[in-house]
Structures are given as C-alpha cells and as structure tokens.
Design brief:
mainly beta; Jelly Rolls; seven-stranded antiparallel β-sheet; 5 helices; 10% helix
Length: 342
C-alpha cells in the first residue's frame, strides 16, 4: 500500500486518524439522512474528530429540511454547487457557490432547493461542537453506553457509494443581500443572529507563506465555527504547522497540490481534504513542476480552505489580531481575480 493509500480515510480507523490524520474526500463518506437531507459524513466523531463535524448535504430540486436549531452548537453552510435557499434571520434567502450562511447556537434555520431549480443544491456543513445525537438514529452512537459504535462505522465505510460533486470550480464572489452580509454588520450582531459570508472576503493574513483570508472567525462574529481560505501559486508553500486545540478539515477547492500530513507529502486533487485533528502536523499546498525522463507534471494554482474549531487563536495571535486577550474586528478585504480558478 502506498503512503497515500495508507492515509485515505476509508483505510484508517478513528484512532489512526486522531493520531496521524487522513486524506478525505467530499465525495466519499458514509451517507445518512439528517433533517430529511442526504448527508455525507466527512469529518465527525465516528472517524476521530472531537471538536467539529463536517458533512456534505445534497438537496435535489424540491427537497427541503424542516426548520431546526442546535441549542449548544453553531452551524456554517458553504454552498459549493447549484443554488438554493437558507432560512436566515427570519427570511428565506438565496445563496450561490462561495456563500456561507452562519447560524449561532439556538437560532432556527433551514435549507431548501426550490422545485423549479434544475440542479442539485450542494452544501458543506460544519457543526461545532459536534452533536453525537445526530448519529443516534443511524446506529453510530449508542446512547445507553454513551459511546460511538466504531465497529458499525468501519462496516459502513465498506459500503460507501461515491457522491457526484463536480470538479469544476463554481465558487465565486457574491455580495447579494447586503443587509445580511457580515462585512456590513457588527461582529456582536453576527454573533447573535447569524449572517451571510463569502469565502473570498475576510481579514488578511500572510504569516504562513501565502495570501490568506480569515472568513469565519471571532473577529467577524462567529464564536466556534472557523473557515479560512488561501491561494497558492506555483512554488508557494503554506508552512507545515499544528494547532494546539483545533481540529481542522482542509479542502482543495480547485487545482491540485502536495499536502503535508504527519510528515508525508501526499498528492491531492480537487475536493480531497486533509483531516488534521489537533496536534497533527499538516500544511501545503506545495505547487511545483516535476520533470523526469518519462513524465512532466504541470504545476497548478490551488484554492485551499479549511474548517477549524475551536477558533485558531494561534493564527490570530501571529496575525496581530489579539491584544490583551481580545480579538480585534479588522476590515474584510476581498480576494480579487481568483474566483475563475479551475
């Protein structure tokens, strides 16, 4: 088994992932039904994550969740393909690829794909802290014992049917519904009621070697949910690092890369993700040209972004956004001329 095959999430158990991480894929994960929606489990307590769950939700036209709320958890919903609607701040709002809808604890929300749409509405959900109750009905959490059924998880991994998220990059900058956009609201208001974000606009950070934006983070209103985005061009490297308290799921949204995980450089393609629980060394993407006698691999730009929880205070400290144990609220700056990256 090659190094990469050894690190593929379906080939590792929860203890191995918790200790050394894994390579996941947004199209590969156990599928269950949550809130009437087919939900693919990417990073969750069943495979070693303890501080967040990352799911992929696929809504065919006409499919709708009931309104629901999590009393102790936040949820962020990132649209990656298709269009649909989220119930946010008391109204139904259309979102498009690149938009993130953020919902604080105990805030009623829902999702739907109107029947007149022609494409699936596909979202990546981050829930933090994770809720084991979400996995009870599917048999992966045993309430009487107070534990995950990891044997059931490993058996279900053998039956995974791949999803159908396209490798085409649909992510774009969008500023519709300006009254709901986080950059037009105070952080305290976002924290109370939620808001719309976009992955291409956030606080600047470049201390790890490539341009980055803090999108979902306490400086702009979230409490626990985190999402950051970076772009690496040929020759760039995002420095290998660990986070002392944060589990992270870092996705290659466009392009390809060599991701660093647990002291290995592993070739990664679009929609593959580094599953890096806290303390696991990770980094990249390293974009280089590889020339050999028999092959030539062209370098590609990479769009790379991760969900992390709890907030990565180590990065905010390096970025100069923490003083006297308080996080500042800097302006949100747009990443320009990168959305068409394929």
């Amino acid at each position: 088994m090659s190094s990469k095959e050894n690190y593929i999430a379906r080939n590792r158990n929860h203890e191995e992932i918790r200790r050394g991480g894994a390579i996941g894929n947004l199209n590969e994960g156990i599928e269950i039904i949550l809130h009437n929606i087919p939900t693919r489990l990417i990073a969750w307590p069943g495979n070693g994550f303890q501080t967040e769950s990352v799911h992929v939700l696929t809504l065919a036209p006409g499919l709708e969740s009931p309104l629901y709320q999590y009393q102790i958890s936040e949820e962020a919903l990132l649209c990656v393909q298709g269009k649909g609607e989220v119930y946010l701040r008391g109204q139904w709002v259309e979102i498009e690829p690149g938009d993130i809808a953020y919902f604080p604890e105990d805030i009623s929300h829902g999702i739907r794909n109107p029947i007149h749409n022609k494409e699936d509405f596909i979202l990546v959900s981050a829930i933090t802290p994770p809720l084991v109750s979400l996995y009870e009905a599917s048999g992966f959490y045993i309430t009487e014992l107070g534990k995950m059924d990891f044997d059931a998880v490993e058996a279900a991994q053998e039956l995974i049917v791949p999803g159908n998220i396209s490798k085409k990059n649909y992510l774009r900058y969008n500023e519709s519904h300006p009254e709901l956009r986080a950059w037009n609201l105070k952080a305290d208001d976002v924290r109370r009621e939620g808001a719309l974000f976009n992955i291409f606009k956030g606080a600047e950070f470049d201390a790890n070697g490539s341009p980055m934006r803090f999108i979902l983070w306490p400086g702009h209103g979230s409490r626990q949910c985190g999402f950051h985005l970076t772009r690496c061009s040929s020759g760039d490297m995002f420095a290998a690092h660990t986070h002392p308290v944060s589990d992270e799921c870092v996705v290659v949204w466009a392009g390809s890369a060599r991701g660093f995980l647990d002291n290995h450089w592993l070739e990664m393609d679009t929609h593959e993700c580094l599953l890096a629980p806290c303390g696991v060394p990770h980094g990249g993407p390293l974009n280089i040209k590889t020339d050999t006698v028999s092959a030539h691999q062209q370098a590609k730009d990479t769009l790379w972004g991760g969900f992390a929880s709890p907030p990565q205070g180590d990065l905010y400290l390096r970025g100069g956004y923490i003083k006297d144990q308080r996080i500042s609220d800097p302006p949100a700056i747009r990443f320009k001329d990168i959305e068409p990256l394929q």
